[in-house]
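User: quick one, fold this
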Amino acid sequence: MKKTYYLFNPGRMSRKDNTLKFIAVDEMGKTSPPKYLPVESVEALYIFGSIDANSALYNFLGKQRIPVHFFDYYEHYTGSFFPKEYLLAGKMQVEQTRAYLQSRRRMHLARQFVEGASFNMLKNVRYYDKRKVEMGSIIHQLEKHRSNLVGTQDVPELMGLEGNCRQTYYQAFEEIIDGFEMNARVKRPPSNEINALISFGNMMCYSLVLDQIYHTQLNPTISFLHEPGARRYSLALDIAEIFKPILVDRTIFRLTNKKEIKPSHFEKGVNGCFLKDSGRKIFIRLFEERLKQTILHRNLNRKVSYKHLVKLECYKIAKYILKIDKEYKPFKIWW
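Assistant:
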């Protein structure tokens, strides 16, 4: 079974027959014994350290359809290497562009992204309202924001409503999380440990969604809620909104409430607060565990993983764009 590999150490990567050869290099230039990854076991590579590689390696990765995602020292997503789009189709490109240009269809998709995201936020708050502390006022505010969804007239208004939902939702983090304080949501750079966890987790969710889009006919640059822009895969931002409460926030709640992440796993400085490699590894381990968890899908009547749910969401969006389905309904937690 294929898996995702995360590389934190700087080093050199090359092809060795049908394997990937990685040699870590420390700050003094000392090399470690090479490690080999059978290419048939690799689904994607996430690079957090400085990697030396040549075009022969990327040609090999492209033929094997293995994407590579790059991140800088401050945990910012900086870009991806993607193999040739093996599923990209002209008909989808045309219809996806039409859906963006037609106000009614774009608004339907954009509204449903916010509907799914806000519903899953509310579900998280209700879960902890029953088990931890009373959060009736936050629930009431979220419900009030959600009631305004139907009356929104344009995408900027929807974006503002989504921002209001998320601002209210983050107030619940102070009650849900033990051992850390969040205060306000600060992104660039993160101001404290919880903001650092949210930023890192959201980046991981974005990359996951981008991976799953690649395995469909969707074009990741044509989006509906977030405005398409230069040098970004904005459709991944749209779809990630639905899954951040399920995949990222639930991971953060477990990490903090079970004391699996500690202040020593963070690095604070004038440039902000960021996870150290030890903290990133802990987060990624639990994030991967959650992606592998399965639920009984009530429509398919079979067990599917959280990771596969993201791909199923892409298929649903594609079917709406191609007019196979008359409407698109976002994934919502039903348990």
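User: anything notable?
Assistant: Residues 315 and 321 are 10 Å apart (CA to CA).
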